[in-house]
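*Target chain*
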Amino acid sequence: MAGKTLRMGIAGMVNDHIWFMADALHALPNVELVSAAEPYEELRQRAVERYGVKTTYASYEEMLDKEQLDAIVVCSDNASKSKIVAAAAKHGVHCYVDKAMSAFLHQADEMIAAAKEGGIKVMIAYHPYFSTAYKKAKAWIQGGQIGQVYLAKASIGHAGPREINLSKYFCEWLESKERGGGGVFVDEACYSIATFTDYLGPITEVCAFMTQQGWRDYLPPDVEDNSVAILKFASGALGVIDAKWGQIGRPPYSNSYHGTDGTLLTGWDSLRIYTRKGVPKELEGWIEIPVMREPRGVGEASYFVETILSGGDFTGVIGLEGARAVQEVIEACYLSAQRGEIVKLPL
C-alpha cells in the first residue's frame, strides 16, 4: 500500500476523543476521511462541517456495506467496540480504536477472534504511548538508569466528566457500567496499567477498592468515582494506582518509579530523575528535563497510518494481545473490589 492514500471512515462519535483523533487524521496528506457513521444526526453533521465527509450513515454496518474503506477510527462507547471491529473485519477494514479496548474482557477476546478471522490490523490508542516524554521515561527505566524498579506509583484523574464539561453524549455512557465497563477506573486507570505493563512487564496479582465519593447523585450505584489498586508484577515489583473523578488541580508529577539506583518522576511538562548511575556522589541530585507537548493525536494518527500503509504490525500495549493484557488487569481489579479479595492473573 506504499504511496497510497488511506480512505477512512469514522465509526462512532459519542466519545469526545474523536475530535482530536479525527483532526489529526484529517491533517495528514495520505488520509481521506470519506464517511462517518453515528446514530446522533447532529454529530454526523458536525463531521460533515469539520472534515467535509461526503456521506454519513446512522449505522456503521451500513457505512461498511456501502463505502469502499481501507480503515476506520472507532470512538463509540466501550461495549460497542468489539462489534464494530467484527463488522469491519468482515470487510477487510483495519481499525484505529480509542482506549480502553472494551468494556469487559470477553469483548476483548471477541475482538481478537474477529480481527484474526478477518485478517485485519487493529491499534488500541493509549494516547501517552506516542509522546516523547513517555518514550524517554521508558528508555531510562529499561536502560537501568534508576536500577531495578521495586515500586511504581500513579495518580490519575480529573474533576469529573460533567465537571470538566464533557459532552452529554460522552457522559451518557461513561456513567453506565454496561456501556463503559465501570467508572473512573476503566476510564482513567487504564492509562496507568498500560504504561506500567509496557515499562515493567506483566502484572500477576491485584487488590482493589472502589467507592463513590457520595456527592454525585447522578451516578448509578455500580459506577465508581474513586478507586485505588495495589499491583504485584512478575518481577516482584509492586505498583499503586489511584484513579478518581474529583482531582482538583493537575499534579505536576503524576507517576513515580522507585529503583535501587534512583527515582524517576513523570509529569505533564517535565521529567525529574535522581540517579546514582554515572554521576559522581558529590554531584548527585534531581535533574529536571522539560518536555515538549506534541499536538494531541498527531503522533498516534501518523503511526497508525504509516503502519497500515507499510504493512507493519501493532505490538505491545497498542496491539491486540498487549491491550488485552491491560483489559485483563482492569477486569481483575473490578473483581477484587467486588469480592473483597486479592485476584491472581491470568483470570
Q: What stands out?
A: The radius of gyration is 20 Å. The mean pLDDT is 96. DSSP finds eleven helices and 15 strands in the chain. Residues 67 and 216 are 43 Å apart (CA to CA).
